[in-house]
Design goal:
Layout (H helix, E strand, L loop, with lengths): L20 H10 L4 E5 L2 E4 H17 L7 E5 L4 H12 L3 E4 L6 H10 L2 E6 L4 H10 L7 E4 L14 E2 H6 L16 E6 L9 E5 H15 L6 E3 L7 H4 L1 H7 L3 E3 L6 H11 L3 E4 L1 H8 L3 H4 L7 E4 L6 H10 L2 E8 L4 E5 L11 H8 L4 E2 L5 E6 L4 E2 L8 E6 L6 E2 L3 H7 L5 E9 L5 E6 L3 E4 L2 E4 H9 L4 E11 L3 E10 L7 H9 L10 E4 L12 H9 L8
C-alpha cells in the first residue's frame, strides 16, 4: 500500500455508488415545480413524479419484491413507463422492459427466463400478456398490475390490480437506498433473438448513469430540454434517456403511437427540442405532407441509429432545419455508445460528401473507454486506412454485465478483453469507424465478397427510394447474388430494370442486384428492417429476377 492509500479508505463521506436514481432525487429537490411529464391533458412536475416513483417502489416492496427480483413491464411510452425506470430500481429490483410487438410465446420465455415476480401492463397488451402467462413454464406467483390510459381507445381487459390502486398502497416518502454496489443490476433487456432464444442483457447502475450523462455530452443538452418519446422506452431503456432527462430536469413528452401527425403536433405544441429514432421515424417527418410541416420550429435536434442516414434523409432534415446526429450501438452497450461527432468543416462540402461523412458510425461516446476496429484473429487494431476490414469492438464503462444465465455467450462476447459486436467495419485516418456489413450480411458471389451496405447506399441515392434492404439470394452458378427489396415513395413507379440500371452506374457488375422486389419492408418495433424475414423470402424463390 502506497502513502496515498494508507488510512485513506472509502467511506460514506467520500464515496457513493453511481446510479441514475440520484438524478431524479436532485431534479425533485432543485426543480420541484418544473414539468417532468406531458401526456395528453396530463401534466406532472418533478416533485410529483419523484413522489410517485417512491410510492411505486414502496408498493413493490410491500408485496415482497426486493433486491435482485425482476419486474417486467409491457408498456408503450406512457407515464407509468417513466415511473418504472426509477420506481422499480428504487425497490432494489431489476427492470425488464418487454418489447410490445412480441408474440405470447416469446413473452412467456422472457417472463420465465428472467424469473419475473411482477409485471405491469398497458391495456393494449393485456391479451398478449394473458396468453403469455398461460404459456409460462414456471408456477411461481406473478403479481399483475394493469395501467390505464385516457389516450387508449381500444377494448380494455383487466387481468390484475389497477396500477393507481397499487401505487396508492405505497409510501410517497419511502426512503429508498443507493445500490450497495454500482455494479448491481438495474435492468434486463432481451436481444431480438433472430436465431434461437433471445439473450438477456443485464445492465448495471454504473453503466446506466454513465451513458445517461454521455447522452447529455454528445448533444450538449441544456437544462430543461423538451424531449419527444418517439424511441420506444422498451428499447435499451430508451437509450438511457429517461435517466438523462432526470439529470437535466427535462420534459418527457409521452407518445403512445409514432405517426407523422402526432409527432408534428407534439413538436409544435410543446416546443420539442430533442427526439431519437431509427431512419423510418425521421422519414415520417421528411415525407409528411408540406401543409402538415408548416410552422415546425427549426433547430430541433434528432438522433438516428439502426442504419446510416442516406443523403436524401440528410437533405430532407436540413430543409426542415433539424440537426441530425448519427449514433451507433447495440443492446449490450445500453443503446448508442459511439457517435458521428460533426466538424464545422463538413458544412462546407457538397451534400453527397456530407452524407458520406455523417453516415459513419464515428467515435466512442464521451464516457465509453474505447471503440476500435480490431482483427478478431490477432486482437490487434486494424490500420486506420479506411480499407482494412475488421470487427467493431467496445470496452469500458458503457457495457453490460453479461448475458443472464449464459456464461458461454458472455465469455465469447468478451473474449480478449473486448466486446465483440459482430459488425464488420473499417477505421478511417481520422479515427472514425464505418460499418461495411454485419458478418452475417456479407454476400459471397462466385468467391467475391459483396457488402450489402455498399449496395444499399447506392440504392438510397435513387430519388424514388424511401427504404431498401439487400440480402443474399441463392444462385445455381454463383452460390449467392444480391437481392434488393425496395420500398418506394408514395406515387413513385419504377421497374426492376430501372433499379438495375441505376446500380450499374455506381457498382461493379457482380455487385448489381440480380433480383428486385418492390414491397413495404418488414420492420421491428424500433424501425429496424427485419433482414432475416427478407432472407426467408429471397431463399424461397419468390424474389423477382431483374433480368
Amino acid at each position: 500500500m502506497g502513502i496515498h492509500d494508507h488510512d485513506l479508505g472509502r467511506t460514506e463521506a467520500n464515496f457513493a455508488a453511481l446510479t441514475p436514481l440520484s438524478f431524479i432525487e436532485r431534479a425533485a429537490e432543485v426543480y420541484p415545480s418544473k414539468v417532468a411529464i406531458v401526456h395528453g391533458e396530463l401534466r406532472r412536475s418533478w416533485a410529483q413524479v419523484y413522489s410517485r416513483c417512491r410510492q411505486l417502489a414502496s408498493a413493490l416492496q410491500r408485496v415482497g419484491i426486493g433486491k435482485g427480483d425482476t419486474v417486467a413491464v409491457m408498456l408503450p411510452n406512457t407515464p407509468p413507463m417513466v415511473e418504472a425506470a426509477f420506481g422499480v430500481p428504487m425497490a432494489g429490483a431489476v427492470l425488464n422492459t418487454l418489447n410490445t410487438r412480441l408474440d405470447s410465446e416469446t413473452i412467456a420465455f422472457m417472463l420465465d427466463h428472467g424469473e419475473a415476480k411482477a409485471v405491469i401492463v398497458d391495456p393494449e397488451f393485456t391479451g398478449v400478456l394473458k396468453k403469455a402467462i398461460a404459456l409460462r413454464q414456471s408456477n411461481d406467483k406473478l403479481v399483475v398490475i394493469d395501467t390505464e390510459d385516457a389516450l387508449f381507445n381500444g377494448p380494455a381487459e383487466t387481468i390484475g390490480m389497477a396500477y393507481e390502486t397499487f401505487v396508492a398502497t405505497g409510501d410517497p416518502h419511502f426512503e429508498w437506498q443507493l445500490p450497495q454496489d454500482e455494479w448491481d443490476a438495474i435492468a434486463l433487456n432481451y436481444t431480438s433473438g433472430t436465431t434461437g432464444d433471445p439473450k438477456g442483457v443485464v445492465y448495471h447502475h454504473r453503466g446506466a448513469a454513465i451513458n445517461a450523462i454521455s447522452n447529455i455530452l454528445e448533444w450538449d443538452m441544456p437544462k430543461h430540454p423538451v424531449y419527444l418519446w418517439t424511441l420506444p422506452m422498451f428499447h435499451c431503456n430508451g437509450w438511457c434517456f429517461p435517466w438523462t432527462l432526470a439529470a437535466r430536469a427535462g420534459v418527457n413528452v409521452c407518445l403512445r403511437r409514432v405517426e407523422a401527425k402526432t409527432m408534428i403536433d407534439a413538436i409544435k405544441a410543446h416546443g420539442v427540442m430533442h427526439y431519437c429514432g431509427a431512419p423510418i421515424v425521421h422519414g415520417l417527418l421528411v415525407n409528411a405532407p408540406e401543409e402538415l410541416k408548416e410552422g415546425l420550429p427549426r433547430g430541433v435536434k434528432a438522433m438516428v441509429a439502426g442504419a446510416a442516414p442516406p443523403a436524401s434523409m440528410i437533405e430532407g432534415m436540413e430543409r426542415l432545419g433539424f440537426e441530425l446526429t448519427h449514433v451507433y450501438g447495440l443492446t449490450e452497450v445500453y443503446g448508442p455508445a459511439s457517435v458521428c461527432a460533426k466538424h464545422e468543416a463538413w458544412d462546407e462540402v457538397d451534400i453527397g460528401q456530407r452524407a458520406r461523412l455523417n453516415a459513419r458510425q464515428g467515435v466512442r461516446y464521451h464516457l465509453q473507454r474505447d471503440a476500435r476496429v480490431m482483427d478478431p484473429e490477432t486482437m490487434r487494431p486494424v490500420p486506420w486506412d479506411g480499407e482494412t476490414m475488421g470487427e467493431i469492438m467496445f470496452r469500458g464503462n458503457v457495457m453490460m454485465k453479461g448475458y443472464l444465465k449464459n456464461p458461454k455467450a458472455t465469455r465469447e462476447a468478451f473474449a480478449g478483453g473486448w466486446f465483440h459486436t459482430g459488425d464488420l467495419a473499417v477505421q478511417h485516418p481520422d479515427g472514425y469507424i464505418k460499418i461495411k456489413d454485419r458478418s452475417k450480411d456479407i454476400i459471397i458471389s462466385g468467391g467475391e465478397n459483396i457488402s450489402s451496405i455498399e449496395v444499399e447506399d447506392v440504392l438510397y441515392r435513387h430519388p424514388a427510394v424511401v427504404a431498401v434492404a439487400v440480402v443474399a439470394k441463392p444462385h445455381p452458378r454463383w452460390g449467392e447474388t444480391p437481392c434488393a427489396f425496395v420500398e418506394l415513395k408514395p406515387g413513385a413507379t419504377l421497374t426492376p430494370q430501372d433499379i438495375v440500371a441505376h446500380c450499374r452506374l455506381h457498382l461493379a457488375g457482380f455487385k448489381v442486384p440480380s433480383a428486385v422486389v418492390f414491397c413495404e419492408l418488414p420492420k421491428t418495433s424500433t424501425g429496424k428492417i427485419q433482414k432475416y424475414e427478407l432472407r426467408k423470402r429471397a431463399g424461397s424463390g419468390s424474389a423477382i429476377d431483374a433480368g
